[in-house]
Amino acid sequence: MTSTHGLPSSRSWSISMTRHRRAAATIAALVAVIVLLPSLTAAELTLNYYEKTCPKLEEIVSDVVITKQITNPTTAAGTLRLFFHDCVVGGCDASTFVSTNAFNKAERDADDNLSLPGDGFDAVIRAKTAVELQCPGVVSCADILALATRDLVTMVGGPYYHIRLGRKDALVSTAASVVGNLPSPNMTVDQLIGTFAKKGFTVQELVVLSGAHTVGFSHCSEFASRIYGYGGRGQNAFDPSMHPRYAAALQMACANYTKDPTIAAFNDLMTPGKFDNKYYQNLLRGMGLLASDNVLVTDERTRPYVQLYAANQTAFFNDFAHAMEKLSVLGVKTGSKGEIRRRCDEFNNLST
Ligand code: HEM
């Protein structure tokens, strides 16, 4: 039905508009469902999920991890990093705990995960054992990891935040799934922003989550290209954006790193074991350790947040707490999408 001008008549115009609107409404509904799906799953988590089935859960986990941190002070940093690596690869589902077997190379053995220290795994496995004694077969390793991380962050001076519970443990864990999901120290800011954006994090959240590098250490191989032979200008040439004395101290500390790859340096030289905003103050003074830390201060998009958090620890703590709550519900599995693993390092069905 066309008008004399070759345009649709007003009736067919309105029919086609109605069809258009219906189609648009259907597409909008579909988009809403797709966008809402991950958060619907996360919304199934609750603060009191184990109130009836394991009422002492939080107490048990914090007792175990606090003892572990006192005996092994590297536990907090190790667990925080482990949590990040677990969540950004397929969701917070303890998939990083599963051991490789003859049929499957698991996440833990992916190149990017080989440097995850044993302390974090050990803290969670000990907590799981203690929890199993009181409430067998009820609490997931994924929930224990989330609680342990929060407790350890708080214990070393960081902010407290709420952990909603009810995550199930993953039914799959493959080394291949790690590829392309984790940031690496030599990424450009664009690549870092892109890697975080893929997981739903903003530029500000990239900066605030990087504040986790206020604790722990990095092996020399992770920043060697910044302190030796930088720009092909001789063995002792270092990245000129580094504080010269800081670079010289790192050059000395790492002198033997090729022979002894275990040599490492503190991420935050000033207060290495304390969760505070010194990381950002260091960045402003050319004392960021990894290239990926340093670029946060050289790029215009990220520098304002570095300045904000360097000046205001309360802002850092508030934003870090929010970002950690967001990280802790990333891609969580509920219902039949996962299981409550009996042991964190094995699927219940060993043939999978
Ligand atoms: C922005 C991108 C990031 C990059 C490129 C990056 C890279 C690294 C690297 C290379 C190390 C040293 C590993 C080693 O030598 O053993 C490290 C350590 C660490 N990372 Fe990150 N990371 C990033 C973001 C994060 C985030 C978002 C968190 C947590 C929320 C985190 C937590 C940690 C912690 C706590 C350590 C110290 C681990 C320890 O002492 O055992 N990192 N990171």
From TrEMBL:
It is found in: Secreted. One of its GO terms (cellular component) is extracellular region. Substrate binds at P183. Heme b binds at H213. Its cofactor is heme b; Ca(2+). One of its GO terms (biological process) is response to oxidative stress. Its EC number is 1.11.1.7. Binds 1 heme b (iron(II)-protoporphyrin IX) group per subunit. Binds 2 calcium ions per subunit. It is an enzyme of class 1 (oxidoreductase). Pfam families: peroxidase. It comes from the Eukaryota. The record marks R81 as: Transition state stabilizer. Disulfide bonds join C54-C135, C87-C92, C141-C344, C220-C254. Ca(2+) 2 binds at T214, D268, T271, D276. The active site is at H85. Removal of H(2)O(2), oxidation of toxic reductants, biosynthesis and degradation of lignin, suberization, auxin catabolism, response to environmental stresses such as wounding, pathogen attack and oxidative stress. These functions might be dependent on each isozyme/isoform in each plant tissue. Belongs to the peroxidase family. Ascorbate peroxidase subfamily. This is Peroxidase. It comes from Canna indica. The lineage of its organism: Eukaryota, Viridiplantae, Streptophyta, Embryophyta, Tracheophyta.
